[in-house]
Amino acid sequence: MSLKDVVSDDRPIKASFEFFPPKTAEMEEQLWRAVKRLEPLAPAFVSVTYGAGGSTRDRTHATVKRIVEETSLRPAAHLTCVAATRSEIDDVVRGYWQAGVRHVVALRGDMPEAGASYAAHPQGYASTPELIEGIRAIAPFIVSVSCYPERHPDSPSLEHDIALLKRKVEAGASRAIGQFCFDSDAVARLRDAAAKAAISVPIIPGLMPSTNFKGVARMAARCGASIPAWLSQLYDGLDNDLESRRIVASAVLAEQVQELHAHGFDQFHFYTLNQADLTYATCRILGLVPKDLS
Ligand code: FAD
Q: Is the CB–ligand 1 distance for residue 55 below 6 Å?
């Protein structure tokens, strides 16, 4: 499928954008520049992450609240099971609802200490399906969850991941967002395996629009995503050449959305890292046209 085919295809495309809550005034400005630039693309939703161990609890809340109050966007607030009792997590959920948030991305999460094995809090939600049930018992939130085209590092097999995804859906999840993955065939295989297991919710591929290849490689090593040799080769020797990295990153994204679109995917989730340019350009490549918000 060529770019011409993607743009002229009449299957409607939907995008969603992930942001993280800013730590400083400067980062806050950067986030809002990105939000404002991407808002006219009318995403299905935007999501705001929750720091490991709940470290961004207040900042995540403040960010989704501001999105509700100051934009036309529908925010989803991430939430993890880690390092908190059920009642503390329930308070966060009620706070989201009171702030006008109607969508939660429910996750197990990781321990606050980098590399530590996961251990459920003794008075907490032990797993994502339990967390989803807790959220849905509080209010009729839309719940999204994660999925892993290349297997979660703690999971013994893809089959285990699929069985867990099924339990998340049975608990009330209505969408699964993929970990970023540069192998479009693996994303399609996960979708097909989910369909075979009678999981009917959409699987949304996660895309990593970053020019910081070294940073992406570090993230990939932590979350079990692979970096193919051809991709490393494309960035080889470009550490001090941002302009070329930008062009390479755009070409890689353009090819990946063409491949995924040819595999039948119509929805895409962008891990924006609070930067809009590559995400904006890729959405234009998918044929999205900005709306006039005035
Ligand atoms: P799940 O898919 O629920 O489980 C992953 C694996 O852990 C499975 O193999 C499961 O069997 C195993 N497992 C589950 N419960 C236990 C248990 N009690 N003991 C041992 N093993 C268990 N992280 C953040 O900190 N904040 C975020 O905002 C955030 N957003 C994310 C958004 C997306 C779309 C994705 C893909 C990931 C995100 N992450 C985030 C990362 C995520 O928290 C980690 O990948 C984490 O290791 C797993 O969480 P999960 O919900 O994907 O786990």
A: no
Residue 179 pLDDT > 80: yes
Q: Is residue 17 lining ligand 1, measured as CB closer than 6 Å?
A: no
**Contact 194/163 with Cβ under 8 angstroms?**
no
pTM of the prediction? 0.97
When pLDDT is cut at 50, 70 and 90, the band that residue 112 belongs to is: confident
**How much is the pLDDT for 276?**
98
70 is catalytic: no
Instruction: For the chain, list the domains and their CATH numbers.
Output: 3-285 (3.20.20.220)
Q: What is the mean pLDDT of the chain?
A: 95
Contact between residue 175 and residue 103 where contact means Cβ atoms under 8 Å apart:
no
Q: Which residue of the set 18, 39, 130, 150 is catalytic? A: 18
* Atom 53 in ligand 1: residue holding the nearest Cα: 108
Residue 30 amino acid letter: Q
**How far, CA to CA in Å, does 189 sit from each of 32, 139, 260?**
36, 34, 11
